[in-house]
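Q: Structure for this?
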Amino acid sequence: MIAIAVIRLRDLFAVIILFGIYSLLTAALFMDLNAVDVAFTEAAVGAGVTTVMMLSSLYLTSRWEATPKHNSLLPLLVVCITGAVLVYASLDAPLHGDPSSPVHQHVAPRYIEKGPAEVGMPNMVTAVLASYRGFDTFGETFVIFTAGLGVLLLLGIQKPHKPQPELNTVANEVVLKVVVKMLIPLILLYALYVQFHGDFGAGGGFQAGVIFSTGFILYHLAFGEIEARRVIPTCWLPRLAALGVLIYGGVGVFALLEDKPFLDYSALADDPVQGQHLGVLLVEFGVGITVFSVILLIFHILAGRSRQS
Amino acid sequence: MNVTEHLPILVVIIPLMTAPLCVLLGQPRLVWFAALVSSWLSFAAAILLVMQVTAEGPISYWLGGWEPPWGIEYRIDILAAYVLLIVSAMASLVLVFARKSVPREIDEHRIAYFYTAFMLAFAGLVGIVATGDAFNVFVFLEISSLATYALISMGKDRRALNASFTYLIMGTIGATFILIGIGSLYMMTGTLNMLDLAARLPEVSDTRTVRAGFAFLTVGIGLKLALFPLHLWLPNAYAYAPSMVTAFLAATATKVAVYLLLRTILVIFGIDFSLGLMPLDNLLLMLGLIGVLSASLVAVYQRDIKRLFAYSSVAQIGYMVLGIGVANTTGITAAILHLFNHALMKGALFIALGAVAYRIGSTRLEDFAGLGRKMPWTMAGIVAGGLSLIGIPPTAGFISKWYLVLSTLEQDLWPVALLVLLGSMLAVIYVWKLVEAAYFGKPDEYRHYQEAPISMLAPLWILVIANFYFGIHTGLTVGLATQATSALTGGGG
Amino acid sequence: MMEIPGLFNYWVVVFLMMAGFYVVISRGNLVKKLVGLALFQTSVFIFYISMGKISDGAAPILVEGVTTYSNPLPHVLILTAIVVGVATTAVGLALVIRIYEAYGTVEEDEINEQDLIDDSAADEPVSSLGGEKDK
């Protein structure tokens, strides 16, 4: 299906679009498998951000793939062996959907049964993500930060250049500008809703950060680079990203100062559940800031890089 | 705040939080200083941890205050403390070296971000070592790896870019394999905590899923370890990365991967399963040996010295893997010993090479002519490192080789012992090439030579002296390694 | 075998994983490699998530009247893994862009050829603009 097409096609643009479709299908699959938070994130991040990044890189490099010159036999062999091992592995695996399989015993039940009570929120995924396994999420926020840093180190921030005539046709559309101006506040508002409602419905820092950045990206696309950079100067973005992780870490350090383990939210308030709520709120906020700034940073860097020929 | 209680997390948090701080500070000299202080603090914490663990036994730290396996646990036992010591010590020393090296090799406006990435790579590595949760390993592995890809690509030569990309592809495949492995184990046990896994795996270890999971984990870690034949990314990555990056990576990154291997096969799966049931012992033995011989052979023909020592590193990793493959107590002790000693050796060698690059702008063999007289201290350092590499007493390298050979003899593996010695012979050849050029060659008349600055000589000679010190007073290292081995194979998990 | 339907979904996922993996190791175009990598990783995510589902279970958000929930832990792990995947793709793409600017191509074979030329140019200081960039 899509996977095979990706292998055979040499038009990279088509490959990337197919990948975007694949991501969306995956997100739909996740919905079907009861993973709403994941579906949301996969759609926004996988289908959205990744596809956009790949397309920008394509624009900056070349569109076509050369004919493969060497023998495909060895890779085919490696892949077949690996695939065989995986199939072999699956033979003893618990069946799909089986409620008595090991993953549903032992660790998970506590999250499901006590999570809402101990952490004070009905969204169990957020409870695990932001509290029980909050340290993983802390690391993950750093992963985002590192990626932004990596792109920054590799590509650097260019000075905004004078808009070339062909690139500005979109910006000349008055209707578009007006519509975008109306849309953006709505998008930003939705992002904030997702951010703060993540305890109850699907959502949270990551998704909110992505959506928030979308608002700004739209502005950039409609109004051109110079305008967009006037609203948020690119050089602020790395610092904002740093701020986000520092907020998250700050919550953790606060706990240390109270002589509690790192990231123990009960140090934040007298009532432990209140503390959990506050802790989750703060760390998700930190995540949102970092995600937003890194995505926008990467976009600015890619968009600002002139095509070298 | 009672500092001693929070040491496990401090070792990781201090460098980790310094990274965003570096972004905010911006000014190169300030950033360097912050990085230096941060790594020294982390090193201090590591020393305290070693003392604590040897006195009181393994330390368990509950992140977020949630007990494991519902929360993430940091677990510091002897092996972990030992590796933390190595990594933080190397970071501290390399940063001293970096003071002059980095401004020479990196554009000024990128220096702040460069150090940020370095702190992230460092923090990621210690994060891998300190944690007792399998998935947490994955997260910090990626922090460290991503930062490393960026760091390697900062080399001046454009080939650094391709080297970094190759490493990115191979490293990500490795990380994804590790993820698949963790997933398989989770699927069969329902937990992610390492000790919990160790307790629950025996009852399901006979299933194909677990065996496949084991395979994926080992291959994934093998990629990061540069185990033959998965080592292809290493020579180029080390050769073209900025000097300070190579020095740090060579001394730490693969060691942490070896640590992860030990942790996986000895603690999570247990020695009987990994080295008894699954044919891993023979596999490691073979691959380790092939790695030693082929890499040493290729090293002999290298004209670029950085590349030469990179291949040498692949060989040394081969020795470590060999020790594990022999699968007796002495062998594993040898591998753990070599973790430490190799860090000392290669750290010294690559810092010295960095000093040479700093002064004469090249690391090709031809350019080493006469260096023995023009940069005496630096060359002497290289010679010392070389001796340790070959394994001549009284260097630290001799000690680990000794234990390795001993372990093979204990298993009546005479041919293997001979091949190990053959590897040392090859090392003699390539070290001699260097020595010959440096001491018997004629220096270029038109080139300006000068000894390396103190900021480079100091860390170099600290490591060189350590090489000799630990080659003579083996009590500390051998003691820790033996204790670690017995904990891993006898009592632990 | 009664187990086939239950295992079928795993096999589909395995196929997807291998397709992605194959693209990464067999194709020489760097951008395509990255797409393959992303494909490979995404399929691993499906693998994890499908583990967590309970038939007739609901999404793990506490709601009145629901008693069976699907397992939240794999969701958390995959959220993190998705982010890690995107981060890797971003850094990879940045590298590809730099490589294109330095070599004029993103085909592995051509890059390796140019590298071999660099390698054998013994003592020349290497410039980052060596080689023609005809595009």
